[in-house]
């Protein structure tokens, strides 16, 4: 039986983005690293409490360490650390909402409180079954919180255009194949791009440009993605210059 390994979401710009889902092997690796880190830290705390306060203090330290690791450690790294614990960083994974948005405090608390039941109490057996049985590779905590564990694919790095293309070139483009839906997606992206971080901005531009280039005969190879979208919007509107005044301002 084959399981889906991607979750496709629609952005406000009308672009379909695929989130590559983490499989059970990489999730096991990240969990193992986190368990080793938590186990070593807990052992140090317990031994210190035992030496200072005896058996009672050691028992209290053991219980506190358990809660701190299973809930506190994961919540802090997921909410503040971009969805990545140390183990997930090592495995190239991150936790996100099923919409692709960053994980919030409430969702992180839900998925990690349920981790106690799935993990410590039942040796991760329900988690393994759930990951294998669900189409988005979600354990029970993910289903309850509305979260996904995805592979942390790096977005393309933004590169400013090196050569300015004269308006005469885009004015000769055959843009009849580009419909109103595609044009609206381009214009929405151009209007909002300066509010995006460099990585998502470059990824969205690349996604749109890859989809639309085959629809526009006569485009010079090597044209920067954002500049292609600027000239495409200008050509569709019959303008004599690119929108927003030509080349894009560099990121600060």
What's the number of extended β-strand segments? 4
Helix content: 55-70%
Helix-strand pattern: EEHHEHHHEHHHH
Oligomer: single chain
Q: What's the end-to-end separation, in Å?
A: 48 Å
Uncertain residue segments: 239-252
Count of alpha and pi helical runs? 9
Which strand order does the major sheet show? Answer: 1-2
* Major pleated sheet: 2 strands, antiparallel
> Class by helix and strand content?
mainly alpha
Tally of distinct domains: 2
Provide the β-strand percentage band: 5-15%
Q: Give Rg in angstroms.
A: 24 Å
Give the overall average pLDDT.
81
Question: Tell me, what's the shape?
Answer: elongated
Question: Could you give the topology of this structure?
Answer:
Elements: E1 6-10, E2 16-20, H1 24-80, H2 86-91, E3 93-97, H3 105-121, H4 125-133, H5 140-145, E4 147-151, H6 167-171, H7 180-192, H8 198-212, H9 225-237
Structure description:
Pfam families: RDD (PF06271). It is found in: Membrane. It is a multi-pass membrane protein. Residues 22-146 form the RDD domain. The protein is mainly α and 252 residues long. Helix 7 packs antiparallel against helix 8 (198-212), helix 7 crosses helix 9 and helix 8 packs across helix 9 (225-237). The chain is built from nine helices and four strands. The protein has helices spanning 24-80, 86-91, 105-121, 125-133, 140-145, 167-171, 180-192, 198-212, 225-237, and strands at residues 6-10, 16-20, 93-97, 147-151. It has two domains: 6-151, no CATH class; 167-245, no CATH class. The relative contact order is 0.12. The protein is elongated and about 85 Å long. Strand 1 (6-10) and strand 2 form a beta hairpin. The strands form two sheets. A two-stranded antiparallel sheet has the order 1-2. The chain has a two-stranded antiparallel ribbon with strand order 3-4.
């Amino acid at each position: 039986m084959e399981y889906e390994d991607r979750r496709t979401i629609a952005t406000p710009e009308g672009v379909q983005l695929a989130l590559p889902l983490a499989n059970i092997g990489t999730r096991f690796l990240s969990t193992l690293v986190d368990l080793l880190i938590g186990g070593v830290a807990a052992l140090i705390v317990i031994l210190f409490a035992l030496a200072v306060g005896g058996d009672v203090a050691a028992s209290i330290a053991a219980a506190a360490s358990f809660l701190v690791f299973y809930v506190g450690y994961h919540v802090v790294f997921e909410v503040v650390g971009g969805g990545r614990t140390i183990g997930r960083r090592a495995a190239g994974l991150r936790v996100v909402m099923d919409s692709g948005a960053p994980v919030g405090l409430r969702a992180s608390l839900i998925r990690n409180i349920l981790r106690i039941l799935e993990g410590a109490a039942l040796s991760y057996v329900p988690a393994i079954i759930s990951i294998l049985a669900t189409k988005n590779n979600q354990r029970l905590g993910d289903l309850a919180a509305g979260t996904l564990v995805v592979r942390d694919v790096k977005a393309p790095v933004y590169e400013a255009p090196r050569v300015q293309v004269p308006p005469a070139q885009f004015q000769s483009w055959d843009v009849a194949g580009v419909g109103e839906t595609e044009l609206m997606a381009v214009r929405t992206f151009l209007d909002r791009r300066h509010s995006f971080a460099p990585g998502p901005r470059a990824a969205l531009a690349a996604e749109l440009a890859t989809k639309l280039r085959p629809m526009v005969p006569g485009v010079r190879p090597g044209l920067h993605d954002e500049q292609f979208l600027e000239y495409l919007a200008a050509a569709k509107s019959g303008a004599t210059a690119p929108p927003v005044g030509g080349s894009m301002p560099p990121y600060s």
